[in-house]
Amino acid sequence: MSENNQKDNDLVFEIVDENEMQFASRGRKSNISDKQLELFANQIKKSPNQFIRISSYEMPKTLVNQKDQKNYKATVSSTIRLMGKKLGYKTTIRWDLKNTPCVLFKK
Q1: How far apart, in whole angstroms, are the C-alpha atoms of residue 38 and residue 86?
Q2: What is the pLDDT of residue 4?
Q3: pLDDT above 60 (res 3)
Q4: Banded model confidence at residue 84, pLDDT cuts 50, 70, 90
Q5: Among candidate residues 105, 85, 72, the one with its CA nearest the CA of residue 32
Q6: How many domains does one find in the chain?
Q7: Taking the model in full, what pTM does it have?
């Protein structure tokens, strides 16, 4: 118990100027172009409140390792959620039997 109290007393704090730091974003990176946002927005307007299958994000057949498949799904899901967020929609993502994302965008 006394070790913990000593560690608590040994905490050192320092004020740091923002210019002295580098920021690294956490999580998966989602690079979305304005053209992609425009294409998504147009498709959502064509079929509101319906699941949309996004065939261009189908899982590549070359990904056979389960860990790689999970990473791919997480990356694609992150990208889709960010697109929905930027367009002002909540997203529900389901993956079909061919490992293609199907997305419902709702206001």
Answers
A1: 11
A2: 55
A3: no
A4: very high
A5: 85
A6: 1
A7: 0.71
Distance CA 19, CA 31 (A): 25
Range(s) of the domain holding residue 20:
2-106
Contact 80, 103 (CB under 8 A): yes
pLDDT band per the 50, 70, 90 thresholds, residue 30: low
Which token pair is 96? 């079909």
Which residues, listed in sequence order, are joined to residue 53 by a DSSP beta bridge? 102
CA–CA gap between residue 19 and residue 13 (Å, rounded): 18
Determine the distance from the C-alpha atom of residue 99 to the mean position of all C-alpha atoms in its chain, rounded to a whole number.
17
| Residues 6 or more apart in contact with residue 60 via CB below 8 angstroms | 72
Q: Which string of DSSP letters, residue by residue, matches 31-78?
A: ---HHHHHHHHHHHHHSTTS-EE-GGGPPPTT--SHHHHHHHHHHHHH
User: Would you state the torsion angle of the CA atoms of residues 63, 69, 74, 77, taken in this order, to the nearest 10 degrees?
Assistant: 70
- Using one digit for the tens of pLDDT, what is the confidence trace for 46-68? 999 999 999 999 999 999 999 99
